[in-house]
Amino acid sequence: MDTGLFPRGRARVAPGAVHVPDWLDGARQRELLRACREWARPPAGLRTVRTPGGGVMTARQVCLGWHWYPYAYARTAPDGDGAPVKPFPDWLGELGRRAVSDALGPAQAEGAAYDIALINFYEGDARMGMHRDADERSTAPVVSLSLGDACVFRFGNTRTRTRPYTDVELRSGDLFVFGGASRLACHGVPRVLPGTAPAGLGLTGRLNVTLRVSGFPDAA
Ligand SMILES: O=C(O)CCC(=O)C(=O)O
């Protein structure tokens, strides 16, 4: 429920990038959270991601469909326990297409066969640096769903990791979609706002589910 002075309306943040507040109602948030808890279990469960340069991502991650590791995809978790990645469920693909259709219009959702989910879990002072989602071979829009604590989501430009960018507060249940001219825009999460999750959700911290189309030749 929005208790602010002004209601939060949907906003076009950049060409092809749209924020839709409160897209998931409380029941759907709880359902998605339940699924995330299952996906986070081993095998191929929640893990810490290390970059080739020796960095450690503070948000922990679990993948569905294809396992992302810096900077490629695999069908197993080579940087985790080596187990096969969990399957990407049909209902999640349907949710992704509905999200794109609501945010950008039905034509953008046509034929978008979502087959990758990256689920990021932020607790403590976890954050995510500015980056591009550039390891896929498809131009289909990226779908982002937020659960739990609110965060500052920084949405930038396709040229640099720095300004110009727009900071958007993403709260539990919010949808953010970026495609078209913004598909390869840099984005990140400079800050999570602790203690802001809806009381009834039962989550400490923040979860983000991002859905992508791989465009890989052997995608089923
Ligand atoms: O947590 C978020 O809202 C952003 C996640 C993200 O940028 C990513 O998975 O590439």
Give the CA-based shape.
Answer: globular
Enter the CATH topology name.
Jelly Rolls
The molecules bound to the chains, other than polymers, are: 2-oxoglutaric acid
CATH superfamily: Alpha-ketoglutarate-dependent dioxygenase AlkB-like
Low-pLDDT regions = none
Number of helices: 3
In which order are the strands of the major sheet placed? 1-2-11-8-13-6-3
Largest sheet: 7 strands, antiparallel
Radius of gyration over C-alpha positions, nearest whole angstrom:
16 Å
Q: What's the SSE pattern?
A: EEHEEEHHEEEEEEEE
Kindly name the structural category: alpha+beta
Q: What's the mean pLDDT score?
A: 96
> Residue share in helices?
10-25%
Strand content: 25-35%
**Name of the CATH first level:** Mainly Beta
User: How many strand units?
Assistant: 13
Q: Which key terms come to mind for this protein?
A:
220 residues; alpha+beta; Jelly Rolls; seven-stranded antiparallel beta sheet; 3 helices; 13 strands; binds 2-oxoglutaric acid
What would you say this structure looks like, in words?
The protein is α+β, with helices and mostly antiparallel strands and 220 residues long. It has one domain (11-212): Jelly Rolls. It has 3 helices and 13 strands; from the N terminus they run ββαβββααββββββββ. It has helices spanning 26-39, 90-104, 106-109, and strands at 11-14, 17-20, 60-64, 67-69, 72-74, 116-122, 128-131, 142-148, 150-155, 166-170, 175-178, 187-193, 206-212. The structure holds 2-oxoglutaric acid (AKG).
